[in-house]
Design a protein that fits this description.
mainly alpha; 10 helices
Length: 199
Amino acid sequence: MPTDLTINVLWAALLGYGFGSIPFGLILAKLAGKGDIRTIGSGNIGATNVLRTGSKGLAAATLLLDLAKGFVPVWLAGMWFWQDMGWTALFAVIGHAFPVWLGFKGGKGVATNAGVSFALAWPIGLAYAVVWIGMLAITRISSLAGMSAVVAAAVAAYALGVPTFAKVLTVIAVLVIWLHRENIRRLVAGTEPKVGSKG
């Protein structure tokens, strides 16, 4: 028989996955008449690729909604089953990266993990945002900024003395970096496009 603990973990995971798997970038682009963004640029459903449609407004909306789909489920989990909110955080990012609705081919989790970080603890989210925005401003390379930010969130959680969150954010960081493996190859080769480029 499943225990209450097992049931809570299951609900926490489903809550995160349900929110995280909503492909806002794809939905917004189609509603705006931009077509399927999976056929342009990197083929990604996130804000950086939405920007390649030429619409800064759509990209900004995608960014905010991808943040929200990480923040909202973790915030709700904090009220309903706070002891298992780490599972919600992890599965929100997994849902974004592997949405069942798109054949498990989604985004790379950077914006969604930003929302997750703020929901877990605002100082963690602040560290995430500062590193993300700072690296983006310096390098103009979205992938490098995103990978730096996910690592910063895990480090911040350890520094704040919340090992449970730190472990979850470390797992998420490993996942996000793995999802960026092609970007890493291009970074090494010096061919990774910068924000605003058409590639």
